[in-house]
Amino acid sequence: MPTGRFGLSADALNSKIYAVGGRNNLTVVEEFNPMVGPNGTWTRKADMPTGRGLLAAVALNGKIYAIGGWVAIGDFGAGNVVNIVEEATLGAPVDTNIINGSDTGTLNVADAKGDAILTFSGMGGTKTITCVATTTTILQGYGIGYLSTPIDQSVMPTATVYYPYEVSNSSNGTDTITIEATRLDGATWTITLIDDTNQDGFHQETENTILSSPVTLKQNESRKFFLKVDVSIAGSTTIRVKANSSQQDTWGDPDERLDTTLTFARGYGVQLSSPADLTGSPSTTVYYTYQLTNSGNATDTITLAASNIVGGIWALTILQDDNQDGIHQGTETTQIGSITLAAGQSNYLFLKVDIPTAEIGATSTNKVVASCAGIDTVPWGDPDIVEDITITTCSAPTPNLTLEKYVLPGDAQLPGATLTYTLKYKNVGNAEATDVMIQDVIPAWATYVTDSGTGTVGAGGGDSISVSYNDTTKIITFTINGQVQPQGYGECSFKVVIK
Fold first, then answer.
1. How far apart are CA 259 and CA 179, in angstroms?
2. Which of 115, 158, 160, 445 has the most crowded CB, counting CB atoms within 10 A?
3. How much of the chain is in helix, strand and coil states, percent to nearest 5?
4. Is residue 344 scored above 70 in pLDDT?
């Protein structure tokens, strides 16, 4: 800002900021235009008649009003509260006359701004001559101070959408501004410019009058209107709204302003991840993890189906991932045939393949198909139907142990609190496991509770569990004695105290 000051007031009008007054008794008014130059431009405007600070400046109907304030007397602190309200027209109106050198009544005294006098000495004493007045007439300048930039919108086919716009005349006189809308690409939907009858910026059903262009606006006056888009089918289109001044010049704001909007109707699309092929032993089950994504721009219900297409006819089931972590737990058994997803939303799900008592090396080629409920009437985005194919192979019997870890209490705790860790193991393979051992490290911020380690075997989970703790390495070891049979399980636990 050219003039640094304290106790000023500021407001915005037609996309510009006006800094008004300030301590002590400043009359300065300066305008900031962010649309000129790389960093915006400051311009000095006409001074306020009454200098003051701690005032209020309010923008309304193309003008700035300076209200109240404090007129200092002498040093900072002493002064008078004033109730003066002054109205500022922000540009000199066209045909205004600037008169320089006129005398307002006091002979040979510069009693008016620009009343120049000439004083000289010579024979006969001192002489004083008053300058002859000059007059400058302000010409018309042209500029569009503002054109709205509403956000893009998405609607259903056959719907109608209204974009709110406002255009302002920032010139110093009345101007006629041409407003037009043009489709740049995409769907050939009907577009219409509609007048905002009550100028409130919100479209009412009764507002259907087509905007008459050009519009006539006085200095600093603005006009609100709507871009109406009648969406017929799915797709998208880019629309340009242009406001043009009646004249082109290099004064003030640009004489043309543009805004581009993108309107798109609901399109549908689906994406499906492709997991790697799996192997499993006879009479076991394998789980494929899939990520399903609604890549359309609207909520959609996606149908899911799985089938054998080559090789063994093995049982297939699509399951819901209850906690959406992408890892199958034994409790996740809910079968699903469809899923509803918002636009852009993704969900994990599982394909469960039950391998029968088959020959080693036998395979089954399986297909998962995901289909959108909505079908595009014009090409849009990703396909509406996708599929993935996997090959499951029957391998030799092998043990396969899983381990899950829990802590209680599971929420935030203070130092001194006791935590109990539980480790659950299970053999989900189809062969017995031997020499099973589980180890865990005590966290650095915790102390092991002596003799708190314990283990319990479930059905087929071994004969017993031995526990040992190494205070040097901070490692607790659980040794499962005996064999862990297929589907056998058990659990171990220990306690620590937070330091």
1. 11
2. 115
3. 0, 50, 50
4. yes
Domains of the chain with CATH codes: 9-89 (no CATH), 97-137 (no CATH), 144-265 (2.60.40.2310), 270-394 (2.60.40.2310), 401-498 (2.60.40.1510)
Classify residue 261 as exposed, middle or buried by CB count within 10 Å of its CB (0-12, 13-18, 19+).
buried
C-alpha 411/C-alpha 413 separation (Å) is: 6
Terminal alpha carbon distance of the chain: 56
| Mean pLDDT of all residues in 406-432 | 91
Cα angle, residue 87 at apex, residues 82 and 93 outer, rounded to 5°: 150
Residue 16 and residue 481: Cα distance in Å, rounded? 81
How many C-alpha atoms does 339 have within 13 Å on its Cβ side?
27
Q: How confident is the model at residue 100 (pLDDT cuts 50, 70, 90)?
A: low
**Residue 373: what pLDDT?**
87
Rounded to two decimals, the pTM is: 0.47
Instruction: Give percent above pLDDT 70 in the chain.
Output: 90
Amino acid letter at 450? T
- Report, as an integer, the average pLDDT of 450-478: 95
Distance, in Å, from the CA atom of 65 to the CA atom of 185, rounded to the nearest integer, reads 45
* Closest to 446 in 3D by CA, of 468, 476, 425, 423: 476
